Amino acid sequence: MVAAMADPDEFDAFYKDARDRLLAQTYLLTGDLPAARSAVREAFVVGWHHWTKVNARGEPEAEVRPRAWANASRRATTRPWHREKDIDPEVARTLEVLGDLDWAPRRMLVASEVARLPLAEASREVGVTVEDGAQHLAVGRAELAEHRGLTTPEEVEGALSAVTATLVDVRWPRPSIVRRAGQRRRRVHTVGGVALACLALVVSGAVVHDADGTATSLARSVDREAPTETPVLGPVPELAESFTTAQLLPTSEIELLSPDSAWTSTTSDNTSGDGLVLPCQQSRYADAEGLAGFVSAHRATTPEGASLRAFQASELSRDPESATATLQSWASWFGGCDEPRAQVLGTYDVTGVGDTALAFTVRVGGPPQSLVTAAIARTGDITTVVVADAASTESDAREPVVELLASAVDRVCESEAGGACSTSPALEPRLPVPTGDAPTLLDPVDLPPVPGIELPWSGTRPTTPEDNPAATVCDRAGFTDGFTDPTTRTFVIPDAGLPATFGLAQTSGRLSDQQVADGFVGTIAERLADCVEQDLVTSAEVIGSGDDASGRMIAWELEVRVDEESTVRVLMGVARAGNLVTQVAFVPAGDADLDDDTFVALVQRARERLLIADPAG
Fold first, then answer.
1. 124-140 pLDDT tens trace
2. Keywords of this protein's UniProt record, alphabetized (predicted)?
3. Distance between terminal CA atoms of the chain?
């Protein structure tokens, strides 16, 4: 709790003292002043979040600096080297040289010459051995000296100081603003004890209340903590000696994604920075006990001006079982993508590539939105991933990405660690991968963006319902009598300025058998029809339905009478898979709405979640 933190005056003094030094370091790492400032600000926000521990260790700057550098390195891997306009030509020349340096020499140069870290400490923060750190530092010094015409160590230091001297007029948020952001972060990371819901569905009159009966609000959902640092792979046995970057796809093959574009590429063993290179990636390596791993990143601008990124990651595990777990980890990262406003649009089995393969399409972020197409394969002990990230969400890169995946598998399948090669790749839609703590409920990655809203959905913790927040005044569907393991969850978009009536609710549960579950769905349909006849709703129109051997789905658009003069539009759907049933309700607010087709697709996804929990249907 915030009350357990040290006096805020200590933090404020530290913030004012260290922020300019950290800005100088991150600016030299990124060449991008806004990115550097954001990296430092976020590091201090996290620092206040954990201030009790950070301050207790005696060297708060040493605690906050790696976070600032990790934030900066994340930005450095996702956007080209950027230099501010209208700066001194000598400073510009220094920045150009730094931008041409490889990441490790640049970091060692900044750590030693600007952060003034001893060689051993600098090497540890960069993630290399002392011997490699010394070599990277020597390379960085030599390159800067050669291209800037410098002859002494003092001149190298002076050139770097001249860059950081231009940052004196940078404006910073007040310490109180940073602390408030840290407090918000602490609150949303607190598990338990905090009410996590505010969804008042006027159709049911349900409002989530705290234990004392007070209506609560949801500031944000529980965020995922920043990924913990995973160890660098190694030691490398003989089997891994032949597993090198030469087995990654060459740029000439990646260029097939956009042959008319100019591509730039980097390749590494992913031991520097925070290791989060690919979209949706959540740890440096999917197999922390693996033998070796490499990543490549490729960037291009199409002739039409659209940006395009492509990536490959490849990991060597100790045996096929470990490689299978590695593939599953990558699948969970894409299937539960934690990028801002991510929505998984499709999940596919890939046949004819390696021993086993999957593919995903994920809409990410915005505006502007991008479309991430990822394909993962295992061949023997090797797992490889190919990703295309296009600024246009209209582009369909599934087939070319799968073709690249097949080529990647064929480059390693005949090695000692390899397995099956590729034949004729093909895509087949499949159920989404399990995500979250409640397999029968939707997850934020299932939810579509709401037009005009640039913030993400946030979901409450799944709970056992006392009342069903997805029920309407017509169906009055309860998930108590006859149900086992009923679970409910609500979703809102915090900080979007929307009324408390806006939101989405879902409740799921299991009945004794399929016939009873089918009767439950039929009862809801009958009650809605009766409701129209009794004039409790002005209309109840079926907007989508489906029925097959595994179950059924129905979705309605309701015009619900609130009083004599006003009605409200509500979208509601119910689905069955086997003896599992689920009900979903959405209440819009003005233009913050979902069209009928989008909601029907969401109810279908809810049914797919039931099928994941009970594949027999």
1. 888 888 888 899 999 99
2. DNA-directed RNA polymerase, Transcription
3. 45
Q: What is the DSSP letter of 57?
A: T
Q: Which residue has the tokens 């260029």?
A: 255
Pick the closest to residue 372 from 359, 390, 392, 352 (CA basis).
Answer: 390
Distance, in Å, from the CA atom of 121 to the CA atom of 111, rounded to the nearest integer, reads 9
DSSP letter string, 357-409 = EEEEEEEE--SSPEEEEEEEEEETTEEEEEEEEES-TT---HHHHHHHHHHHH
Beta carbons of 285 and 293 less than 8 angstroms apart: yes
The two three-digit tokens of residue 161, written as one number: 């100081």
pLDDT per position as a tens digit, 470-512: 998 888 899 988 999 899 999 999 889 999 889 999 999 999 9
What pLDDT score does 184 carry?
A: 53
Q: What does the alpha-carbon distance between residue 517 and residue 616 come to, in Å, rounded to a whole number?
A: 14
Query: pLDDT per residue over 453-476, tens digit each?
Result: 989 999 999 999 888 999 988 888
Give me Rg for the CA atoms of the chain: 27
Torsion of CA 144, 149, 150, 155, to 10 degrees: -90
Whole-model pTM?
0.64
Give 568-601 pLDDT, tens digit per residue. Answer: 889 999 999 999 999 999 999 989 999 999 999 9
Q: What is the DSSP string of 517-537?
A: HHHHHHHHHHHHHHHHHTTSE
- Compare 261 and 177 and report the one with higher pLDDT: 261
Looking at residues 420-436, what average pLDDT do you find?
92
Q: So what's the pLDDT on residue 355?
A: 96
Residue 607 near residue 575 (C-beta atoms within 8 A): yes
**What count of residues does the chain have?**
617
- What distances in angstroms separate CA 185 from CA 45, 48, 179, 210, 222, one per listed residue? 8, 9, 10, 21, 9
